[in-house]
Write a structure and sequence with these properties.
The chain is an alpha+beta fold and 155 residues long. The protein has helices spanning 3-12, 56-76, 122-125, 134-152, and strands spanning 19-22, 26-30, 40-44, 81-85, 95-101. Helix 2 (56-76) crosses helix 4.
Length: 155
């Protein structure tokens, strides 16, 4: 079984503390590590590796919902810029990485602190100190859920 499928199973069983909302095509969950405050994942309900493997209607809905989640993340966490990435090289299950960005958030990692999140050292990004406390996690989830609900209701 894949890591994303495991995470989804935890959501279905009420065991994923990072889960925020279920949408029609996927699940919204905060990332385990929050160096980039508000880092969020949008996990496709279907286990496919590539976007083109979804049927047309599901694909269009999935992309629209990702855009809505992205907007909610940007607003909830005061992003100056959003990075949206659909990679799948490590976990071959369709999922988006949504990173709210702010000036200087990767420090002096080349190009005067501007660049992709992957320029930030992985060992620092995934330090235990970047895991939110239970209280911080609940506040972040509430903030994102409220913003997501207000935006999603417009569609």
């Amino acid at each position: 079984m894949c890591l994303i499928c495991d995470r989804i199973e935890m959501i279905k069983n009420g065991e994923n503390p990072y889960f925020v909302r279920e949408l029609r095509t996927g699940y919204v969950a905060l990332g385990d590590h929050q160096h980039f405050n508000g880092y969020t994942l949008f996990l496709c309900k279907e286990h496919v590796s590539e976007l083109h493997e979804l049927d047309r209607d599901t694909k269009v809905q999935f992309l629209e919902e990702m855009s809505i989640v992205c907007e909610a993340v940007a607003k909830a966490f005061d992003a100056e810029k959003m990075n949206c990435e659909l990679l799948g090289n490590g976990d071959s299950h369709l999922h988006w990485h949504l990173f709210p960005r702010k000036a200087g958030d990767i420090g002096n990692c080349g190009n005067h602190g501007k660049g992709p999140v992957w320029w930030y050292p992985m060992e620092k990004m995934y330090e235990d100190g970047n895991r939110p406390t239970t209280k911080e996690l609940e506040e972040m989830k509430g903030q994102l859920a409220k913003t997501l609900d207000s935006i999603y209701s417009l569609y």
